[in-house]
Amino acid sequence: MTNVQQSLTTPVIDYQDELELPIDCENVVLCDNNVLLVIKGNTVTVYNGLLINRVLKFEDNIVKACVTTFLIQDVPTQIMAICFRKYINFYYPSGKVFTLHLPFDVALVKEYERGLVLQTKTELYLINKNLDLKFVDTDTNSSFSSHEYVTTFNQRDNGISLCTTFINGEINVYQVKNSNRNFKSNTKSSSKQQKKKYYSMSASSSKYTEPKLSQIFISENRTSTLLSNARVLNAEQPPSSSMRKDVILSKIDSIESKLNRNHVKLFSIRFENQEGIVVVNKLKQELHVHRYNSYSKSSSSYKCSCLDCIPLNSNFEGNLIVLTDDGLFIVNPFLELRTGCNTNLPAYMLLSSFNGRVALRLKNDSVRLVKVILEPVSDLVSSCLRCFKYLSGSTVDQIFWSLWRTAYNNCGSEWDALVIALLSLSVPFPGDFQFTVNEITNLLPQAKALRESALVNYSLQDLIPYIVVSLHLLREEYKLDVTKGSYLKRLGNLLSQLTIWMGWPDEWVNYYNTTCNLDKSIKFLSLQIIQSPPNLFHSLASLFTNNIVPYLSFSQLVEESDSIDAIVTPVTNVVLKLFEVLVSSQYGPAHLVDMMSDLDVTSLETFPFGVAIPLKEALSVSQEQPTFEWTSDSLSLTGREDLKKLLSNDLYCDSVVEKTACNDIESLIKNLTSSEIVSSWDDQSEAKRMGITKLIFDQDRRYFEITTLLHQTKMQTAFLKTDESVSEYDLLLLQRKLAGVVAIRTLTIPMGRAALNYGGRKPLLTEKYPIPKFNLNTLISPTMTTIIPSEDSISQDLLEWGHFHNGVSSSLSIAKDSKGISGSWMIFNKPPDLNSQHAGFLYGLGLNGHLKKLEEWHIYNYLGPKHPLTSVGLLIGMAASLRGTMDNKLTKVLSVHAVALLPQGANDLNVPVTVQTAGLIGIGLLYLQTQHRRMSEILLSQITGCVFQNDSEQIHEGYRLASGLALGFVNLGKGDDLKGLNDTHVVDKLMAVATFVKHDQPRLELDKSCCGAIVALCLIYLKTENSNVADKLAIPESEQLLDYIRPDLLFLRCMATNLITWSKIRSSRDWVESQIPKVVLDEFNKTNGFNRLDSDGLIFFNILGGSCLAMALRYASSSNIEARDTILYYLDKMMLLTSKSANNYDEKLAYNAAINVQNMLALCASLIMAATGDLKVFQRLRVLHNDTSKSMGYGGYMAINTALGFLFLGGGQMAFDDSLFGIASLVTSLYPVFPKENSECEVHLQALRHFWALAIVSRCLVVKEVSTNEPCKIPITITMKDGQVIEKLSPCLLPKIGDIQTICTNSIDYFQVVIDCQLKSEILENFEQSLTIYVYKKQNYQLLRPNIRSMLQNKSRNIDIESQSVINGALFEPVDLNSKEIWVNEFESKKKVSYSGLTIFNIIDDKLKMIQSVESPESIEDIWNLRLLFEYANTRIQNDDLHYVPLQFINQLKQKLWNKVGS
User: Fold this and answer.
1) Where are the domains of the chain?
2) Is the pTM of the predicted complex or chain greater than 0.85?
3) Cβ-count burial of 715 within 10 angstroms (0-12 exposed, 13-18 middle, 19+ buried)?
4) From start to end residue, where is composition biased (Low complexity) (predicted)?
5) What is the pLDDT of residue 1017?
6) What SS3 state is found at 296?
7) Residue pair 1077/1036 in contact by the 8 Å Cβ criterion
8) Which of 71-85, 209-223, 1438-1452 is the least confident region?
9) What is the pLDDT of residues 1393-1402, one digit of tens each?
10) Which residues, 6 or more positions from 1117, have their beta carbon under 8 angstroms from its beta carbon?
11) Which of 142, 1310, 1354 is nearest to 639 (CA)?
């Protein structure tokens, strides 16, 4: 047979003109993706296509350079490996380079399909596809000599796996076996990054764990998750002793003998389930292939002469490239087929091959690259040739491929070559025959010549009926692709001619509707295996009727499994499955979408309209009701880009929006000449934040007003009303006094600005972060006099704290997710001398969590100078960043700054009281909710303890209060479970101090400890509903007991009692009055207490304040109108009361208490309506802000400006959290004693006023349009768990996510999006992180449905279609005017067009196709598509529920078609 096939020739392309390789290169390795390696000495040159990609030069000698396949994240990846004696470099396609340092010296490296084989002098190792390092050993019946080296290695999932070695002129053949211990492992388990330990082996040890390759990888200037556990094996330990023997070699055969190693080339090839060991003896110029089909001795061998031979690495198994004196040949030793190659190059050596490319070394030592044409480019010819694999055996299949290549070499046309090859094996050629000329019969002479020259003694007479039917099924396959119309004609002509020659009925001939003259002179009668040609459209249409017509699939024809259909006729397979679901009453559109996604259907545009429209109908329904499984493919298919965005993890990554180009030269010049100011923060992030804020407050100018009120850099204005009789000097004194009050108000503006601008900026790390300065000048009207305050008009202490708050407000404007906020950046912003402003800046950074990784030397640089406010800001800031971590390093730092934490006998470090107070607060945060016994004991002792400074002890109420707060933080909400603290009697001790009744003057002044004890009990039992503790702290009912309690303590006790019994707090006035003892309430009402200043009202005022603060904390950020109105009712009363003048001491006492309660009520109102900008609250706060009477003071303005900030918290986008820590932070921040005189600053550390920042959560729902990525106003419906339905307009604040059932968008212009907050999913996780919903504007069939709204919209737009427009052409003549106007409007709207195939553009396009198919059909397939569509529509007549194309339009098509047939 070898001689018979000498004339079979394969075409070859010479790359001489395209690529010229170096003549002195030692080796060439061909790889996938047109990559080739050229190796010369210690240099590897990588070519990508025709260009040099990189040149790698090394100092060490290269043992092996190759490309093999590894599994990277479960994906087979081609990786280049360059092996040296001590290490291996792996070059990934992404450009990463990893180095594997080996614990042994490599003598030999062989690549195989799944990795590398490494051989040392005595041992064999394996790096498999999962990047596992394995030790290869022999079984007990085999032995591996130290002089034996590996020549081939294979590991296959099916078939046989062999390894060959060479020793002393003999070749040993081994079976490759996996260890039983490794059999259970699979790819998925190996892909998981399991942490594996590597144990050294001792003599008695039997337990060991295999090392993964990732354990001994060391990256070259790169890091990777793959290298997370990188380590190097112990060089002194034998590596094999600690590795599992997962691969075992078992000797099965020895072949050949007396071979010279220098003159032998060994490799292996496989074919089906067989493996061949190829031995090329260059000395004898012989080729031997030993064939194995089982693990026994060689079953047979193949022998031929050759100069050189290499495996032909391609999609065709079992082929060799053989070089002989007569040229190049393709040889299949398993089938003993031999085909020549059409090349005359004078080659003497074969270097490498891959995918048909072959590298040759010519006799002049140059390297030439050629391409052997093994398979066609055309999809039609490939599909036809693929059929033969399943229609015939391997021999016939290979013969046919060889005939096709020979014919292609002769004629140059892939399709003609296919026809020639088919005719050569099927048509009987008489001596002299005549035939009718057509495109098929014209090829008969070439077919006859091919048959005669090839001398193939084989006929396809038995197979030709199956070949015809299979080609027919391929033609039906191409009917489903509108881009393959030319294929139908070619196959139709061939099949028409073949069926006539075969003598099949005219039904077959007429089916193909061919127009060429068919030849009837040749006859070779063949069995008709089926009666009529299978018609796919007929079968699909019959599914909608009661008379179903079966369809013959390719798998049924060849009697194979259904999986064959997905290979040979994939589109037919998909359509049949989809239509089976489509007609089933058990499944709906959602199931169809899921199936399309599973079947990898990404577009319906290539389907004919008869198939596409029923599927698009299902997609249209699912587009509006996405009840299918949300995957990226299914959402793309239905055109729901909004839901796809929700599903992705790039919600934070905003897409790039194109900027509008300059339309004229003037605007361009203006942009060039304008001086660009470099901002110190990311303007884009702030612009996005501001855009959302403006959308929230777009109805009026309230946001402009709040930014004006909280503007500290502009000159403040004030109005001074005086009598005309006042002298000029007295007027000046009054003006200076007023200017001093306004300056103090200006110093407190940062308190509100911090809340207003919270988290809105991201700093540029290369620029210093700006902190706005104060403008303390005042413009007095009506005289319009500018007053500059003198240095002594404002105390230095107030100035220091004012600048501290200014620094805090600036750093709180930095977003929590800002990157790169490190100690180095803080030092970059550090002033030459530490000041209070930078201290506040550090404190604010800590509150936002940016001080977690501050280096020790940075801490020392800040604490070393002992600047008090810097120490306060840094200590509390670091503790806030590391809260709850019990960090040991920070504990030491805090202990140094609090004398109580130092051991007894320690030296006095002269730490200021404020810094010691900050140290205690820091301990409370650092040990948050840890119930740490030691810290709890210390803090408990300090509630009644004294603070030491300069070897003197002081009784400091602020210090004791901080101890109580810290103790509450450590045991926050753990009142019912104080594990480890029961024996300390902490609750009893706190209760004794908290309920202390002052009837004498004790030594410890316990009345200064009461506040700390009450707050500690409040936080420990927060939300526990513990009635015992609450009853003990409750306000006494008798008037006599009330006289023994300081009035301001009643405020705290009332607040604490209600916060403990959290669920009983209500929002009505009746509840507030129920908290006031009846005797007090009756007396207050009897005396009309809201209309007169009397110290008897102190009890009422403080209990009222405590009740309202508890209510505000309960309903914080809830926008509860009843709670707001309750607070405002009392606020109005207090504002009227404080407008009265206080003349005597008793009235002044009542006045001061009323002012304090008024400020607290203002804070309470803003807390409830936080971030809403509520006008009723805003009006009252603005009045209080503009009150420049002396009585307001520093503390009053601090409260009012904080309230203003709360009302517009985070630009209307933030909310307060009602968690335990959130409430505790708010209690700390809103402690009801604000500084008024300098001495009162000690009662509550001012830095704690910013603790509200620890209770902030983002709860602003933003709805963005996918096409523009810009926020928009969309109606939102929020359904709560309790059934309550809330209607809002986005952007808006959401209730607590845990209380929400669903969030739904309600806009007729956009697709509805529903977020189920109770269904745990990836979508909900992404939504909770971003609180962003994307909406997608409808461009579907609904726009084309005529309705009054759309008509009025089109009328208002004044759409004018130009007479010269394409849409006025003949093509669009069947389209009605309304559709044309909508087309023009949507096209010109510059919105992102969906590519789902469901837009109005697709609908109009499909309608035009259907109309054209009725009026002038191009082929019979158009009529079959119409029939399929009509049958589908008939099933929908009763419900009239067609969406994509209305039923009325289809009925009009029917009428047109009948009229056409009738005429």
Assistant:
1) 1-36+310-374, 68-182+207-259, 377-460+483-526, 882-1020, 1065-1245
2) no
3) middle
4) 182-192
5) 94
6) coil
7) yes
8) 209-223
9) 555 677 777 7
10) 1167, 1168, 1170, 1171, 1209, 1215, 1216, 1218, 1259, 1293
11) 1310
